[in-house]
Design brief:
With about 625 residues, the protein is an alpha+beta fold. It is built from 17 helices and 22 strands. Keywords: DNA damage, DNA repair, Endonuclease, Hydrolase, Nuclease.
Length: about 625
């Protein structure tokens, strides 16, 4: 039998390796930013066009490369980070495999400009699909500039699998956040399609978090700090009241490397047990330092998973540290950049024993002593004779003027705006009731119908909002006091893009700038207290998947809004509300299914009951 196994050509092997290393433009951004950090850069600039599909450009002021190193850096398994197998367990750098640049060059047009501080002239290298096109001397500043153009140009199938530009941009921003948070001492800039996205100066960890996620984040942070023989923990967790329904601001860094660890996440979540609801996720920015010999990073191509030698001890220490910080965050001094530190209690006072204040009283003190000696004491104030206390009730009638029925007293409603259901006084005669505050049971001629109240309300709101956003004739309710909400810059950009659709549903934005949104009007279908949660959920859904402009985007927005606004399981409804919900449901075009195609109700005949009970 003839031999059938053969070695793959280098360009094919590089493209296969690129499938593991480069999955989307964000993968290229991650590798290039980490290379800049390894080059000891103090300033890094990221420029992207068309969500990285057209251009990803990273410029740094690091050590740069010589002519030979510039050429060798694009060869497979060529690296300066390790020299032996033992070095894999003593890593202090980001990249070490020597696959990133070779994989990127195999599927894109790459242009490299670099120069070391000792060299008088730099190098300009051009590569297309692993093939070196040119290598010439060039006058360039110290450091490295690498441009990756036309990603996946020679693999159209991979390019077709990329998501829309907003989704790919979101992934790039996530990678940018991870690298920028891990290295607060490095200045970072990011530009997308000619506009500035981030300008982060060199700072400390707290300031870096605030610069990325907005100034309001500062008041949410709780410091976490602990150091033991095997682990050092620094960072912050968000106060329990700022937990979110979605997993957003959750960052683990081990030796300044971002990782994903469900095991450690469970440790943090268990520390919040009893402080947040079961369906709410805590936020955290935790930096762990361990001995490099006690971890294995080389278990995943993206290097975002780490294997610890002693996971149980790290779990226990992390949980205890976070729990300890949460137990004293309300009495710990608050760090604020604009606060007068003179009002803070010094830390030294925590170790001092309390002492009772001493009080000296002069028992012989008499303010009239001197005047008494002169014999001219005069009291200027004379107490007036007051009427007896019975005179307070003179003139009151003896008739019983008390309110005979407390039900007649009308109180001002605590609701500011909106109502879940319209009030109806009409007696319909139907008998309905709830089961577990989740299902509504209504009798039929030959049986009964069981309705899921949350899914039913979602269908009602979905059709109403979709009609408003399509016809553009939504009714708004004006707010007496405008709402001022704070969002991070990326979230604010998302809301800006869907502002027109939100206005068609009834929102009125009076101001939208500088991480602040001012809303002066909201749809009549929503309560004022629900606006913040609705917008947060809407931003999260858009981050996950943004469809193209048109009906599909409107449909996604309306589905997200309907899910946020619908009555939840556990809400008790009175008879009028239950009947009104049923009437509205069967006035819809598609009452049988929810917006996510789940059945809204089911029916049960008397014959079905007879089969079960006879």
């Amino acid at each position: 039998m003839a031999d059938i196994i053969q070695l793959l050509p280098d360009h094919v092997a590089n493209q296969i390796a690129a499938g593991e290393v480069v999955q989307r433009p964000a993968s290229v951004v991650k590798e290039l930013l980490e290379n800049a950090i390894d080059a000891k850069a103090t300033s890094v600039t990221l420029v992207i066009k068309d969500a990285g599909k057209t251009l990803v450009k990273v410029t740094d002021n690091g050590s740069g490369m010589s002519i030979t190193d510039a050429r060798l850096s694009f060869e497979r398994h060529a690296t300066s980070k390790i020299k032996s197998a033992e070095d894999l367990f003593n890593l202090h750098t980001k990249g070490f495999r020597g696959e990133a640049l070779a994989s990127i060059a195999a599927i894109a047009h790459v242009e490299l400009k670099t120069k070391t501080e000792a060299s008088e002239i730099g190098t300009h290298l051009t590569i297309e699909g692993s093939k070196v096109i040119s290598q010439d001397p060039a006058v360039v500043p110290k450091g490295t500039t690498i441009s990756v153009k036309n990603l996946f140009y020679n693999i159209p199938a991979r390019r077709n699998f990329l998501k829309s530009n907003p989704v790919e941009t979101r992934h790039i921003i996530d990678e940018f956040h991870r690298v920028a948070l891990a290295h607060p001492s490095v200045a970072f800039q990011m530009h997308h399609n000619g506009s500035d996205v981030f300008n982060l100066p060199s700072s400390n960890s707290r300031q870096r978090i605030v610069n990325i996620f907005g100034s309001k984040t500062n008041e949410k942070l709780v410091p976490v700090s602990e150091e033991t023989e095997i682990l050092k923990i620094e960072g912050f967790v968000l106060k329990p009241e700022y937990g979110k329904k979605s997993r957003g601001e959750q960052f683990f860094f081990v030796n300044d490397r971002f990782i994903k660890s469900p095991y450690l996440h469970h440790a943090v979540s268990s520390a919040f047990e009893g402080l947040i609801k079961n369906d709410v996720h805590p936020g955290y920015f935790l930096f762990l330092e361990v001995d490099p010999h006690s971890i294995d990073i080389n278990i995943h191509p993206t290097k975002t998973e780490i294997k610890f030698d002693d996971e149980h001890s790290i779990y226990a220490m992390l949980r205890a540290t976070v729990k300890h910080s949460l137990g004293q965050f309300n009495i710990a001094p608050v760090l604020d950049f604009e606060r007068d530190k003179g009002f803070d209690t010094p830390y030294d006072y925590s170790k001092k024993q309390p002492t009772a204040p001493s009080i000296e009283v002069d028992k012989d003190f008499n303010p009239f002593k001197e005047r008494a000696k002169q014999g001219n004491i005069n009291f200027p104030f004379k107490r007036e004779q007051t009427a007896s206390w019975e005179s307070l009730y003179v003139g009151l009638k003896d008739e019983n003027t008390a309110v005979s029925n407390l039900g007649d007293i009308e109180f001002e409603s605590e609701e500011v705006t909106g109502s879940l259901f319209e009030n109806t006084d009409a007696e319909t005669g139907h008998i309905t009731f709830q089961i577990q505050n989740k299902y509504i049971v209504s009798p039929l001629k030959n049986g009964m119908m069981v309705i899921h109240q949350n899914l039913a309300h979602q269908r009602i709101l979905y059709e109403e909002l979709l009609k408003n956003i399509t016809v553009k004739e939504a009714v708004s309710q004006q707010l007496l006091f405008p709402l001022q909400l704070h969002f991070s810059k990326p979230d604010l950009e998302i809301i800006e893009k869907i502002r027109e659709q939100l206005e068609h549903t009834g929102f009125i934005f009076s101001e939208l700038k500088d991480e602040t949104i001012e809303i002066s009007g909201i749809p009549v279908l929503i309560l004022e207290s629900h606006v913040v949660n609705l917008l947060n959920q809407l931003v999260h859904d858009i981050k996950e998947e943004v469809p193209d402009n048109g009906f599909s985007q409107n449909d996604m927005l309306v589905k997200s809004m309907a899910a946020s606004m619908a009555i939840k399981t556990g809400v008790s409804l009175n008879r009028e509300e239950r009947e009104h919900l049923i009437n509205q449901l069967f006035a819809c075009k598609e009452p049988t299914v929810s917006p996510t195609n789940k059945p809204v109700f089911t029916t049960m005949d008397v014959s079905d009951l007879d089969k079960k009970l006879m």
